[in-house]
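Checklist before submission:
- one chain only
- standard amino acids only
- sequence pasted in full

Submission:
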Amino acid sequence: QVQLVESGGGLVQAGESLTLSCAAPGLLFSDFGMSWHRQAPGKNLELVAEISRTGARTNYAESVKGRFTISRDNAKNTVYLQMNTLKPEATAVYYCKAAQIGRPVYWGRGTQVTVSS
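Returned file contents:
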């Protein structure tokens, strides 16, 4: 059974950094594009960053460009989200997602990130 397990969330002050990890044991990891999404209180789920199967291509929400970096290690079945210069509006539950055309879509259960001002 495929599970995506996020970790690395926590409480930080504005301007600090966090790195989220999403492990995907049991997934044919290199077959899937991976992405991070977040949902802030009272708001819709939004795409934060995505990365192609090989890691050659990435895409970011405008609000995080230049501060967040998505990466993956296919040997470890893990995708990362390095978040620098965090702002209070980054407070949200962060989810990772595995998706590829013709394959099932998998979601993690999320990890809470709270940024205090």
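Reviewer check: Residues 34 and 98 are 5 Å apart (CA to CA).
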